[in-house]
Design brief:
With 123 residues, the chain is mainly alpha-helical. The chain has helices at 4-10, 15-35, 42-70, 75-84, 87-97, 110-122.
Length: 123
């Protein structure tokens, strides 16, 4: 019985076998890389980066919205209305109050209004 080293030195694979073995290795490498290796395409990485940037902006703008609510003259009435409203309607209340409209903007931001409503409802 020949050992592995002897069998390896005696092996003479054909060019066809070597070609298909290389193709198989490439397929397995790509499959493992995209499945478990954490590889992503350029488009996916751009979408992930954009989502992270949007989330960071909302995270930084929500305190401005809360501060606008704190300085509103009708704050108590609007906060009571906000807390009594369903979770679905809270962001609309924040937008109608004008708290989610950032300085220099003309329209309120939906994501900022959602984050602001969550903070204000928890108070």
């Amino acid at each position: 019985m020949a050992n592995i080293a002897q069998r390896w030195s005696q092996a003479r694979p054909s060019k066809t076998f070597t070609f298909w073995l290389c193709v198989l290795v490439v397929i397995v490498t790509v499959t493992v890389g995209f499945t478990w290796g954490g590889w992503v395409t350029g488009g996916t990485s751009q979408l992930t980066a954009k989502a992270a940037a949007d989330e960071a902006v909302v995270h930084r703008l929500a305190p401005i919205c809360v501060a606008a609510a704190e300085h509103d003259a009708d704050r108590d009435k609007k906060l009571k209305q906000l807390k009594e409203a369903s979770e679905w309607d809270r962001s609309d209340i924040v937008k109608k109050a004008g708290w989610a409209t950032m300085p220099g903007e003309t329209t309120p931001d939906d994501k900022v209004a959602d984050a602001c409503a969550k903070v204000l409802a928890a108070k």
